Amino acid sequence: MEDEKRSLPENLSSLVVDYIKNKIFKGQFKEGDHVTEVKIAEELGISRAPVREGIRELQNQGLMKSVPRKGNFIVRMGLDDVREIFDIRLLLENSVLEMIIKEKKLTEANYNSLTQIIDQMVTIANGHGDDAEKIVKINQKDMEFHGFLWEKSGSKRREKILRDLYGQLQMAMVIDTQLTGDLGVTAKDHYDIIKYLKLGDLENCKSALKNHISTYKSLKTEN
Questions:
Q1: How far apart are CA 162 and CA 70, in angstroms?
Q2: For residue 127, what are the β-bridge partners?
Q3: What is the mean predicted confidence (pLDDT) over 98-114?
Q4: Of 127 and 186, more confident
Q5: Which of 29, 78, 113, 151 is most buried when burial is the number of CB atoms within 10 A of its CB?
């Protein structure tokens, strides 16, 4: 904790957002848990004002909610909520793929970077360790992969919405590991996305993205 206090960023509310997110994704905060400003402020060694701002941002991202006269809580997310988020994500991310292909926004170096991220995901999936820990690590790499594409699209608005949606999906997948399906398949699915991006094949690229999303077990009933 002393290291955290010495390296506090200027934007303390961002520190709060990252701190609470990490607790959620590591399973230290669970659905319905009560989160108090005082406790977070004490843990980080900061005042309550940036904690309040950080919690407000997490509410905007759909990860927390405020209950009048009771406080702030980690949201409970049902399967219908997750499916709706995936539908919205698919719609927006398809438009990102279209922008990248039509405007040829990726270089060979970019493709190499994306491939390296997938290789790391596959290594994590095939490695030893607890499945819950693997899910957290693969989710981080998955976010890195897709976030790279969102950023390269040049659409800041789409990128912001997708990042907020992804936070909710990460939480749902950490809470319910059954949503994650086969970790190896989930990781390797990304190779097809890259393959069709390089070929400029938009339709197959969209299909690869949809197939990637459909590997999540609980969503397969809709396909």
A1: 30
A2: none
A3: 97
A4: 127
A5: 29
The structure's pTM equals 0.74
Structural domains of the chain in order of their starting residue, each with its CATH number? 2-74 (1.10.10.10), 79-222 (1.20.120.530)
Residue 65: which H helix or E strand, with range?
strand 64-67
The residue assigned the tokens 């490695």 is: 127
The region that residue 163 occupies, defined by phi over 0 for left and psi between -120 and 50 for alpha, beta otherwise, is alpha
pLDDT at 194: 96
Which three-class secondary structure state does DSSP give residue 72?
strand
Q: Exposed (0-12), middle (13-18) or buried (19+): which is 199, by Cβ within 10 Å?
A: exposed
d(CA 18, CA 29) in angstroms, rounded, equals: 13
Encoded tokens for 70 = 């009771």
Cβ neighbors of 149 (< 8 A, separation 6 or more) are: 93, 96, 97, 100, 114
Helical H segments across 47-182, by residue range = 48-60, 79-102, 108-126, 131-153, 156-175
CB 92 within 8 A of CB 150: no
Q: Are 189 and 215 in contact (CB under 8 A)?
A: yes
Which residue's structure tokens are 């790499």? 141
Which tokens sit at 65? 């909610």
**Percent of the chain whose predicted confidence (pLDDT) is above 90:** 53
Digit-coded pLDDT (tens) for 59-80: 988 899 999 999 999 998 877 8
